[in-house]
Amino acid sequence: MENKFYTLPDLPYGYKDLEPYMSEEQLKLHHDKHHLAYVNGANAILEKLEKSRKDGVDIDMKSFLKELSFHISGHILHSLFWKNMDKAMENNRIEGSIKEAIEKNFNSFERFKKEFSQAAVSVEGSGWAVLVYDKKVDRLMLMQVEKHNLNIFATLDILLVLDVWEHSYYLDYKNDRVKFIEAFFNIINWEEVSSRLKKAKQSLN
Predict the structure, then answer these.
(1) What CATH homologous superfamily does 24-83 map to?
(2) How far is 145 from 161, CA to CA, in rounded Å?
(3) Which residue from 54, 55, 66, 174 lies 20 to 30 Å from 134 (Cα-Cα)?
(4) Which of helix, strand or coil describes residue 146?
(5) What is the residue extent of each domain of the chain?
C-alpha cells in the first residue's frame, strides 16, 4: 500500500522472549496479524478520505470517523502494549517513583494489582485495562476501555495497558482470562511504566 500513514512497529524483544507467559505462536499472531490489521485498516480509511476530498465526493463522515478511531486507537494501544512488557527480570521489579506513586494512590501494590486485575477481568466483551496519570489532580487512575475507543478519559497520560481481547491470550490460555492477567504481571516492564510517568510529570513544568 503506497503512502502509508501508519506502520507496524518492531517488537522490542524476540518472539520467544516472553515465554512461558506468552508463547512465540501467540505473540506472532497478535503482533504480525492482529496489530497489522489495525495499521492497514487505518491507512485504508485515510486513503479513502484523501481520495474523496480530491474527487469532491461526499462520504458518511460519522461512519468513517468511527471506524478510523477504532483502528488508530487499536494501533496506538498495541504499540504501548508491546513496550510495557519485557523479558528482562531486572525491569520487572517495581521500584522508585512508580512504586511510590502506586502505593500513594492505591495504598499498596497488592491493592493496585487487585483493582487493575478486576478492571481487566470485567471489561465487557473485548477491551483493555489501563493505568493512567491525571496531571490536573496529580493522581494515578484506572481506565477500562471497551474495544479500543470507548470509555476513554480524554487527554490523560497512559502508563500501562493490558489487552484482554481474546486474540491476545486464547492460544495460550483458552478462555481463562484470569490466568492470562496473572501471568501478565510477570512480564510488566516497570522501568518503561516509570519512564512514562516521569515524562508526564515533566510536562507539568
Answers:
(1) Fe,Mn superoxide dismutase (SOD) domain (1.10.287.990)
(2) 10
(3) 66
(4) strand
(5) 24-83, 89-202
| Interval 124-170: pLDDT, tens | 889 999 999 999 999 999 999 999 988 888 889 999 999 999 999 99
Indicate the SS3 state at residue 143: strand
For residue 22 the three cell numbers come to: 506468552
Per residue in 74-126, pLDDT (tens digit) is 999 999 999 999 986 766 789 899 999 999 999 999 999 999 999 999 998 89
Question: Model confidence over 4-18: pLDDT tens digits?
Answer: 799 999 999 999 999
Superfamily designation of domain 89-202: Iron/manganese superoxide dismutase, C-terminal domain (3.55.40.20)
List the Cα angle 156/162/166 in 5-degree steps. 135
Cell of 10: 518492531
